[in-house]
Amino acid sequence: MSRGESVPFAFIAEADRFRSNVTPPPAARRSFREVAGSALVGLTVVAGLVGAVLLGLPALSEDQSPSSKPPAAAEGR
């Protein structure tokens, strides 16, 4: 202990002075096929979401006029 203090776990107090000289390895560059595959997956997901919204819009619209006769399921009552 360089400080001469009786601090439990003094090595933690000295950790802020520690600097590592180990550098992380350089990031591997992604190939064109990997980038194109990721873009294709993302495009497929976005196209699916847009398609689901477009198919669901008619069911969500409020301009449907209610018919005057009751539904067929209610005729047997």
Secondary structure: elements and pairs:
Blueprint: H1 10-13, H2 32-60
Keywords: Membrane, Transmembrane, Transmembrane helix
Explain how this protein is built.
- The chain is mainly α and 77 residues long.
- It has a domain at 31-57.
- It is built from 2 helices and no strands.
- It has helices at 10-13, 32-60.
- The termini are far apart.
Strand content: under 5%
| CA-CA gap between termini | 91 Å
Q: What is the H/E order?
A: HH
Poorly predicted ranges (pLDDT <50, ≥5 residues)? none
- Judging from the principal axes of the Cα atoms, what is the shape? elongated
Keywords: Membrane, Transmembrane, Transmembrane helix
Transmembrane segments: 39-60
For the structure shown, list the relevant keywords.
77 residues, mainly alpha, transmembrane, transmembrane helix, membrane
What is this structure, in a nutshell?
This protein is mostly helical and 77 residues long. The protein contains two helices and no strands.
